[in-house]
Amino acid sequence: ISALQKGYSQVLCQTLSERNSEITSLKNEGENLRRDKAITSGMVSSLQKELLTKDEEIERLKQEVNQLKSENKEKDHQLEALSSRCSALREELRKEDAHKECQEAQGKELKLCKIQIQDMEKEMKKLREELKKSSTEQNVISKTLREKSKLEHFRSQVIKATYGRVKPFLDKPITDQQLIEKITQVTEDNINFQQKKWTLQKETQLSNSKQEAIIENMEKLKASLDRCQACMKMSCCSRDLKKEVDMLQNLQVSPPVLGLQKVVLDILRLSLSWLEETERLLRDVGIQLSSSDTGCHLFFFPHVVA
């Protein structure tokens, strides 16, 4: 039994070891499978990405192909249009060649017409020059006649202005020499009249200025006399009156007023000498005069200051 147990134990141990080795191998295999699965998943993902990229590229290529097809269609249309245009141009060139031939024929005829026109223009130019020369001569004649008419009219106006309405010579026309002499005489008379007028105006101005000077001198003399009269009416001494007399004597007046100035000065000097003599006599008798009592009114209201 122990041998059996021992053998059984060995078998179990061997079985367990086999199982353990099998489990280990399975684990390893599982790990390998997981790694393979991860690798496979990565590869699948990358393949899917590549497929998506390829699909996108295929779609883009399809679009490019469609675009190229549409462009080819447009180019075909353009080629057809160019072909039709070339055909039209060839037709136009053919027509132009025919038209050019026609134009050359017309050009020859036109050249002949131009030559004829130039000849006609030369003839017309000659006719215009002759007409212009004739018109110029007519204008000169007309201008001369107008100027002559104006001169005659001006001459008649000058004669009327010079001689008046009555003609000096009823039988004979007035000659240019007679007209010139008459104009010279009228001019000299006018100059003499202007000189006399200027002289008279100057004399009038001088007379007015003299009259104004006399009036001014009279006003000055009157003002001086008014001051002297006021001085004599107030309480004044001989010194004040002498001052006024000196001012009147120094007054500058013109000759017409000078005589009146001399007469007034003689009268005032007489009054001044009389006043001075009176004051001297009063002082000699011992009468003292105050400043308010001196003057001409002293002899009407006398009072003595001791």
Report what the structure shows:
- This is Forkhead associated phosphopeptide binding domain 1.
- It comes from Neovison vison.
- Residues 16-137 form a coiled coil.
- Keywords: Coiled coil.
- Residues 292-306 have low confidence and may be disordered.
- Among the domains are: 105-169; 212-299.
- It starts with a helix and ends in a 22-residue tail after the last helix.
- It has four helices and no strands.
- Helix 2 packs antiparallel against helix 3 (238-249) and helix 3 (238-249) packs antiparallel against helix 4 (255-284).
- The protein is mainly alpha-helical and 306 residues long.
- The longest helix is centred in the first third of the chain and has 162 residues, at 2-163.
- It is elongated, with a radius of gyration of 77 Å.
Features:
86% helix, 4 helices, mainly alpha, 306 residues
Unreliable spans: 292-306
Proportion of residues in extended strands: under 5%
Instruction: Choose one word for the global shape.
Output: elongated
Instruction: State the end-to-end CA separation.
Output: 207 Å
| Helical/strand content category | mainly alpha
Indicate the multimeric state: single chain
Count the helices. How many? 4
Question: What's the order of the H and E elements?
Answer: HHHH
For the residues shown, what is the average pLDDT?
A: 77
Q: What gyration radius follows from the Cα positions, in whole Å?
A: 77 Å
Q: Tell how many strands the DSSP assignment holds.
A: 0
For the largest beta-sheet, the strand count, sense and barrel status come to:
none
User: Roughly what percent helix?
Assistant: over 70%
